[in-house]
Every structure is written in C-alpha cells, then in structure tokens.
Amino acid sequence: xxxxxxxxxxxxxxxxxxxxxxxxxxxxxxxxxxxxxxxxxxxxxxxxxxxxxxxxxxxxxxxxxxxxxxxxxxxxxxxxxxxxxxxxxxxxxxxxxxxxxxxxxxxxxxxxxxxxxxxxxxxxxxxxxxxxxxxxxxxxxxxxxxxxxxxxxxxxxxxxxxxxxxxxxxxxxxxxxxxxxxxxxxxxxxxxxxxxxxxxxxxxxxxxxxxxxxxxxxxxxxxxxxxxxxxxxxxxxxxxxxxxxxxxxxxxxxxxxxxxxxxxxxxxxxxxxxxxxxxxxxxxxxxxxxxxxxxxxxxxxxxxxxxxxxxxxxxxxxxxxxxxxxxxxxxxxxxxxxxxxxxxxxx
Length: 347
Ligand code: MRU
Fold this sequence. Notes:
The protein contains twelve helices and 16 strands. The protein is of the alpha/beta class and 347 residues long.
C-alpha cells in the first residue's frame, strides 16, 4: 500500500498546495509565488493539519526570501506574520522559528538563505516519513500488548493522514500501518463538524488506501463504545502542553471523557514538533475561533435560521488525566506526563 500523493509541492520557485476545501470531489492544486499568498492558504484552510501548516510556513518564509530584502528586522517581521496565520497548532511557530534562525545563520555565513530554507522544508517533510512510521509501530506494539494479535476496530477524529502531515500521518498513520499488517477490522471516522475533516478528508484517504470504514457523527461515540465496537481511539494534536493536556480538533475532549468512562484506550499521536513545554497546561493554550459561517452554512447554502448566530471554537483540550498515552517518534509516553514529556525532550 504505497500512496504517491503529496498535499504540498515546491517546484520552479513556486509552492503548489492541494486545495483541501474542494476534496473529496476535486483534486486541484493552487499555485503561490509570494509569502502573502502562502499565508492565505493557511488562513483559508486550503492546507491544514498541524504538521502541514508547519511545512507550509517554512515554504512561505522561503517565498519571502526569494523576493525581499534581508534585513534582520524584515526577516523577523515576515516570520511573525506567518506564525500569526493560525494560533493553535504550535508546529507553525516551531518550524518558522527554525527557518528564521537558519536564514539568519546563512546570511551571516554568506550563503543563500532562500536555498537553505527551501531545502530545510524538503528535509522536514522527508524526516516526517520515518517519524510517522516510528509512531505507528509504537502504537501497534502497545495495542498488541493490550489485546494480543487480532484485528482491531479503531475510532479516529478529524484528519491526521497524509493530507495533514505530508507523509503517512500521525493517528491515521497508525491506522495505515495496522492495515498494512492486516490488523484492521474496521475504522470509525468521526465526521468532525463543522469543517468535515473526517467525512471529506479522512474518508477520502481511507478510500484511497482501501481500508474498511464508516463515517459516524461525533454523537455516536458513546453508542459505539457501549456496544464494545471500539478497541482503541487514536487522535492527533495541535499543541501538547508540558503536563500532557492536548489541544486538538473540537470534539476530541468529549471523546477522551467518554473513552475513560467505557475504559477504551485513548491515544494522542503527534511528533515532537507539537510539544510546547513553555505552556504549562491546557488552559493556557490559545483556541482559534473561526467564522460563524462554517456552522451556519455549507458551501454557501444557509442551513440555520437567518437570524441565528453561532459560536465556533475550532479546538478543545483533552486533559492529560484522560489520555492513556502520547505516542511520538521517540516512543510511547505514559503519565505522569510532566516527567515523561520532559524526559523525551531532554534526551
Ligand atoms: O483545523 P485543522 O484541520 O488544521 O485541524 C488540525 C487538525 O487537523 C487536527 O486537529 C488534527 O487532529 C491534528 S493535525 C494532524
């Protein structure tokens, strides 16, 4: 099962982004040759998913370097503009700050910062492949340790596959890996209101991968778990605080609470670029508020009464105490997360 499909391409000094707003029905790449355009692609969710937002941020910075002057102040301002495109996923700041340092060093050493930053972006995407695969193997080992060798029913939320991560993905990388080892019975895909990352994107990826799945509304989680139809839940993350509290797509925290009630293992799968130990706990994480229109309309068609308004927080925080384990490229972290996260970052 080898999918040759990339949501981001950088060719001839231009960034090409698969327009995820049009999926699953149309596969259209939009072309960007300026930093402002690339920032819009993040804001408008042409590209989305924490790791891919980070990679796009590096390319956006490269596009700035291609056409602008290189004063240190100008570079810092450009980096800040990119980082502010979306607030919750820490991967964006993590990657753009590294790209900024690289550019400043390249300048100091008389190298071409543009080429350095473009190559850095390619390298991060390439590295994510091995990292995603490592996480998937850790997850699989743990699942077999709990249940023995059998086929599993897995539930997942939002979209965490190649569209969100560039390579096989975090939580959905676990699913792909299990499927490659003939260990998947069925996947429950939360539709993930209001942007429908589950029914539009995860279902699209699972279809491409020929993995058996059903789309369910988030409200079905308790029913499925009460009937013993879920062996484990895997979700991604947009920011993991020092104590293990994890911001992820809205609805994830509900799942973590229901999973604890029914004793279903609930795992967060995320690369180290998603860890933010400067933020001590989840209540300090900025939650992105998105437009009401995402709830009140679908593709321009009004669903709600004309006078109704909506409130649209795009993420919520699952408390560390409700998370069975956090799986990163270095291994499976267990509570107390304050110690296991520090341990893995200081390694
Ligand atoms: O708003 P999005 O689609 O960019 O949301 C981010 C996500 O894709 C999810 O929260 C995901 O679970 C973490 S990123 C692999």
